[in-house]
Amino acid sequence: MADTISVLLIDDQPLFVQYLLRFLATEPRIDVVGVAHRAAEGVALCQTLQPQVVLLDLSMPGQSGLDVLPELRAAAPKALIIVLTSHDSAWYQEEARSRGANAFVSKNEVSEHLLEVILGQNAPNPNEKSV
């Protein structure tokens, strides 16, 4: 479908990944084009797939989501990068945004807010200046 939004999911927690896949499958305008369980794998898929949206967990073994954010932004400069995490403190939000994330959704609030952020494109591209 040409009208779908391509999504790449990067998260190391199998149960959460399964939940997200089922949850996102309920929205016909979303097409999950790839799943990565490690940060480096996510960057490689991002370069290859050029998704419109990247869903990124911050806490992963090895390279963290915070560490990989600049690489993801470079790999897909136009992508909407949404951080999904249990770390919902202001520090994590500010740090994630400073490294290239567009939006931040707590894993505890996915069902309430994630579709709104993806479909509404409510977050600005960090490469675009606001007026």
From TrEMBL:
Keyword Phosphoprotein: yes
Gene3D superfamilies the UniProt entry points to: 3.40.50.2300
Record PTM 4-aspartylphosphate, positions in chain: 57
Domain Response regulatory: 6-122
Keywords, in A-Z order: Phosphoprotein
GO biological process, one term: phosphorelay signal transduction system
Name of the protein in question: Response regulator transcription factor
UniProt organism field: Rhodothermus marinus (Rhodothermus obamensis)
